[in-house]
Amino acid sequence: MSKPYEEVGLIQEEYNKILEYLDREPNELELNMYGVMWSEHCSYKHSRALFKHFPTTGKRVLQGPGENAGIVDIGDNLGIAMKIESHNHPSAIEPYQGAATGVGGIIRDIFAMGARPIALLNSLRFGEIEKSDRVKYLLEGVVEGIAGYGNCIGIPTVGGEVSFNASYNGNPLVNAMCVGVIEHDKIHRGNASGVGNSIMYVGAATGRDGMGGASFASVELTEESEEKRSAVQVGDPFMEKLLIEACLELLETGSIVGIQDLGAAGLTSACCETATRGEGGMEIDVLKVPRREKGMLPVEVMISESQERMVLIVEKGREAEVTEIVERWGLHAVIIGKVTDNGRLIVKEGDKVVGDMPAFSLDASGAPKYYKDYEVPEYYKEVKNFSSEEINEPEDYNQTMLEMLKSPNIASKEWIYKQYDHMVRTNTVVKPGSDAAVLRIRGTKKGIALTTDCNSRYCYLNPKEGSKIAVAEAARNIIASGGKPIAITDGLNFGNPNKPDRYWQFRESIIGIGEACRELDTPVISGNVSLYNETEMQAIHPTPIIGMVGVLEDVEKNCTIDFKEEGDVIILLGETKDEIGGSEYLARIHGLEKGEIPFLNFALEKKVQKFVLETIEDELLQSAHDLSEGGMAIALIEGCMNRTLGANINIETKLRKDVVLFSESQSRFIITVKPSLVKEVEDRLIKQKIPYTLLGKVAGEALTITINQEEVINMPIKQIEDTWRGALKCLMG
Amino acid sequence: MKFAIIVFPGSNCDVDFYHAFKDGFGVDIEYVWHDTENIDEFDCIILPGGFSYGDYLRCGAVAGFSKVMEAVRHHAEKGKLLVGVCNGFQILTEMRLLPGALVRNQNLKFICNTVGIKVENNQTPFTNKCEKGQILNIPIAHGEGNYVADAETLKKLKEKGQILFTYSDNPNGSLLNIAGVCNEQGNVMGMMPHPERAYESILGNEDGRLILQSIIAFLQGGWKNE
To answer: Quick count: other Cβ atoms within 10 Å of Cβ A536?
Structure first.
């Protein structure tokens, strides 16, 4: 028989710590509350010690990590609130609701700050879709869940990414990001301040769904995980829509001292977190909490993760005002407790005290904090052993190109994003399918660019360098859209931190992100950690997803990836090197996942990024596209699509043909320039000492690539486009 | 000339219509809450897209019973203009103010895309600024936009010129490729595509303006049905 503390996911030394805090044995309610709060998902006990590596401040940062969401200044008295969050385990078990409630949860984090949610993105990882019906089922369900929630609530899903790799076979990743806009003086926080102020509960009634979801998310997935379906919540986007409108209206009245959404660990976390940030204490009565069913125990009420609920800390005497507004939106608000300053979180059932704990002890500030042992994994040295000499050059490059285009990692993701309403609210200027989404900010000339990015194969082969590249590539996406990168939110998805090799990946990755964010001046303003992403078979590839926001001073000057006009000159910025280690080409065509990943040189990276942004702002470019998976060949093809314009490319090189085409060397962009402006652009490139190559021209209806006078590729755009657009749709039937 | 947008709990495109008319054309337009009783002052009522009341029953089924909808029905009976887009179209068919019904898309998926629609009849308050046969590129975003009706209704719609728009490349399985229809009197119009999402160049598309302009022109007396 396992011990009671093991049942709630704690270990002996953690139980001892509880005894110390309470000076007695905890009862069942208290033990469960500690169990959910001290889970990795809520306490970040394995990760907090590493966060010191992140830069979290800067002149634009209005709110850094530690609140419901981070906020960054974009000028004009406006801020952008953003956060990313994972819903991996629920989605592995129940894809539709798992993904839907992931979206619902992250939206609440944004409007809890007082911000109006304006955009959603999502970053998805699945197993081998070409081999598994289970993976197709998961993809279908997850996409429908995201669509079902986002479309109904009326917030556009404007971007994100999805990729496929065997390491996610048993453990998909579903990370949802929400972005909101807020005026500087309207920022709200989750503080339970002012002794005697009322704690009010708004939104859906509490049911038995999502019991212990936070703990469930903090263990590995096993065969038995299917039985934990009750740990998955059920979403109601309509309820949440009403909740958004009611809460934003309430925040305008000045009656709200603090506001907090009920997410992981439900009422337990909302109470102890707001108390810790406020006066330190709180008293609540579980009998006052609206319930969906009879006979619920205090422990069930306290740890339920039922969706669409908020806790408000209301100035004493203004409760009726709150009730009136909430009821106009068809919702109910009830007083469930009050703010105290005795440092205790007291849970009552009527008059009876059923739980009494130091509030801070539950919260991250009182939770255990671990520095884990780490060791370099065995695979790490082995996978580096690779040279491009080991593989044979393809004989038919047209065929190789088609095969690359069919890779679900390269193929068009239209099948996915056409299920998302990406236009509602009519602010979406650059729609899904470009490097980053661009939204205008109504009432200003400004726009914001949004992207998510992470090449997890790189992060597997080299967690530190791969994570740096994830940040750099996100920045390149923003830059190519005409935005200046200003901040990131990170979704850190890793394996079991108790295994030293996994913890090493995690640690390396965090150090890498920190370094890249310092280099590129994009502080980390919020984030989420999801560990234990592994099954009995394997751990996922380390997947630190970078959600980035950039600002466009003039949204009219946005830029997209597609070639615009015949005759435009195509220029490659940066240098192509023999860097096919970890590339999509190596994986797709040669079935190898190994090699040194491309080298990222920040000095060059920053130079190239600055150049691209300036030339876009000076309206010298027709298109800009960063090079990533599939290298130059795929980037060229992506430029040809949309307007069905071909290109004639001519390259002189000492490198192998496949290396030239598919190397994933960093800090590269493809830009197109009107012939009349080429001189101006070249002058600037020379002056700024940026390596570049004139590749050819936009022309005709076919892509031809000639290398050292030999034509290696000649494909009609129509054929390319059919293959590329059809691949995922075809797989999904 | 005064426009009203009815706001139900769950309306999403109310704001989009507001901006399209206000920023795009400077017309007088107001939000009207679903429990309003008197809407006499308005010349044109808009039922916007979204998921009214969560659309948990059938799309648009509950909204028809909102307090304001009795007044909306009277408004239409008086011959004044009533426009339903997307969820608004679904509401109008549920209320039987327009014939037919909108069911699940043929591929069973929500579809968000910009599609071509052909103007079938330009002799209406909603299309008088368009050319007959003109193709407009207008965004769609719906899970249940598959227009169905019995054979007799379809025949009548065709004969009386009540089919205003048809899809160039049918995205959802609608019978006769129907994207938008009006009532026999010609004052009530419903369409699945969103003209309010295509009213300015920065959104990549201005074709929706023609539909909004048609309505304005009609109300200004600049167009009379011959």
So the answer is: 9
Together in a domain, A568 and A717: yes
Residue of chain A with shortest Cα separation from B109: A419
Task: Examine the domain organization and report whether A381 and A249 are in the same domain.
Answer: no
Instruction: Say how far residue A624 (Cα) sits from the centre of its chain.
Output: 24
Cβ contact A454:A470 at 8 Å: yes
Token code pair at residue B174: 């609608």
Select which of B13, B44, B86, B130 is catalytic: B86
**B138 and B198 in contact (C-beta within 8 Å)?**
yes
Question: For the CA atoms of A295, A297, A301, A302, what is the dihedral angle to 10 degrees?
Answer: 180
Q: Look up the domain containing A33 and give its range.
A: 8-37+189-362
Of A240, A231, A63, nearest in space to A153 by CA: A240
C-alpha span between B127 and B215 (Å, rounded): 8
Cα A52 from Cα A54, distance rounded (Å): 5
* Fold classification of B2-219 (topology level): Rossmann fold (3.40.50)
Same-domain pairing of A709 and A612? yes
Say whether A492 sits in a helix, a strand or coil: strand
Write the pLDDT tens digit of every residue in B186-224: 999 999 999 999 999 999 999 999 999 999 999 998 766
Asked whether residue A320 falls in the same domain as residue A374, the answer is no
pLDDT in tens, A655-698: 999 999 999 999 999 999 999 999 999 999 999 999 999 999 99
Residues A287 and A256 both lie in one domain: yes
What does pTM read for this prediction?
A: 0.95
Residue B64, H or E segment? none
For residue B53, list chain A residues with Cβ-Cβ distance below 8 A.
Answer: 238
> B203–A429: do the CB atoms touch at under 8 Å?
yes
Question: Which residues from A are below 8 Å from B51, CB to CB?
Answer: 151-152, 154, 237-238, 241
Interface test with B, best of A423, A440, A642 (most B CBs within 10 A): A423
Question: Is B19 one of the annotated active-site residues of the chain?
Answer: no
Give the CATH number, domain containing residue A263: 3.90.650.10
Q: Does A329 touch chain B (CB under 8 A)?
A: yes
One domain for residues A571 and A716: yes
Closest Cα to residue A247, out of A72, A81, A109?
A109
Three-class SS state of B210: helix
* Domain count for chain A: 2
